[in-house]
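Please, structure for the following, as tokens.
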Amino acid sequence: MKGILRYSTQFLALVVLLASFGCGSARFVLGEVSASPPEAKAGELVTISIPVSNAGDAEGTYALTLIVDGAVQETKDITLNAGQTQNVAFSIRKMSVGTYAIDINGKAAQFTVRSTPPPPPTDKLKEQQQLADKAKRDFYYSLAKLYDDMAEQELELARETGEKAFHAPSPAWMDYWETSLKHSRNAEAYRRQARDYRSKAKRASQ
């Protein structure tokens, strides 16, 4: 009877030992967090993902919590078999421009939201802008021609009064000479104005 009891006790211990080898546990390992795209426009969908592996010897369930700028956004539970790896993804949109800090169970990253660029001008707006640029260019060229004509008139007056200065008796020739110099200075000022307006017209064409 004692022998039977001894063998029964040993058999039970063996069963417990074998059972203990079969009752493993899950052990989860996290990879690096990534955000796609890392730079998004305001309101654009950003996908935040992280690879999760079960490095244990049994199936298990693991909870992943996405935190953005210190605020909990979403929690997901994932169940993995022993040795299995899966990529877990979250989606988020942000309207405010700035850089956002991401945290998933202690794994950190970040993404940036840029301002949305203005839409490209339509063909109609382009046409209107081209017409406005042409009108401005034509206006500047017309002013340049006007000042060129005024400069020519002043030069002609300068030549006429200069001729009179050579033939006038003293002291009248001094008055003619000063008048001729005045017309010459006016002509040079008008030519400068004409050059300035031609430069503006060229810039308006670019």
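DSSP finds three helices and nine strands in the chain. The first helix runs from residue 2 to 22.
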